[in-house]
Amino acid sequence: MPLTLGLTGDVMLGRKVDEFQQRRAVDAVWGEVLGHLQALDGLLINLECCLSTRGQPWRRTYRPFHFRADPDWALPALQAAGVNYASLANNHLLDFEVPALLDTVDALTETGIAHAGAGRTVEAAREPAIVSFDGLDVAVVSLTDNTPEFAAGPTEPGVAHVPMELDREERETVRTILARARRHDPDLLVASLHWGPNMVAEPAANYREFGHFLVDEGVDLIHGHSAHVFQGIEVYEGVPILYDCGDFVDDYRINRDLRNDRSFLFEVTVEDGRVTRLRLRPTEIADYAVHWADGDVARWCRERMRERSSPFGTADAFERLGRGLELTVA
């Protein structure tokens, strides 16, 4: 039976989002998108903040931004949307030092939301998340090349960091991480990657190479994020590479050219352990919540996605689907 899994870019619930959520309904952060999220068979996000009221802002190296959300509302909000999995390998899990990272990991575990990419040791941070969706077993590994000072160590909490330069040592490290995931015999293997710099509309060559390497090593879907703007989509050897899913919820200053407040809810149809179809539903951030994009905004999203996918040969493969786009993978 085909299943539909949703994937989002960054979900940042701190600062102004956290402030507004203290005086509105728990599920208000999802706007009118909420019902659609709840109807999905599964939902995977990148959690771009820690969930805690503890810790002090990271000062060991320069950090201009620190993102933290109160778990008293944030956890119920994630549950209300039906979030099944959260990626934690990113550049904000240690914004409030080790206590807040540990609170995040423990809170998600206690709530039953699967997660990968951060932990008490490097071995824990590299462990895959295993999630079952109506009989479909999905393994997710989460890695980042951002903020090397946040990297977990043999006895130090942190995130699963790899430079994504693909030297011999890194290839073996990544192969070991993927082998751990495959030991669970998943139907679908997903790599959720927080890679690359902010505010760039196309991936650099090393990220394309890293994505291709993962597919060659057996990954079935690549869920990219980090740039704060959505990037193009490539289908390599029958596997979709979502180079960057942009931002889904945040309070960031808007770049009027790149429009980091606009993106998509990315939906993949999975049949017999393969992604066969991809649907892109345009979204827009307003009032510290996510909303459906319509009219000129939706048109802008469709046009930019086609433009940004052109280098990968997929621009003409997109078909119009309501306000969004659809891509047949296999």
TrEMBL record:
Protein's name in the database: CapA family protein
Alphabetical list of SUPFAM superfamilies matching this protein: Metallo-dependent phosphatases
Domain Capsule synthesis protein CapA, residue spans: 4-252
Pfam family, one: PGA_cap
Family indicated by similarity: Belongs to the CapA family.
Highest taxon, organism lineage: Archaea
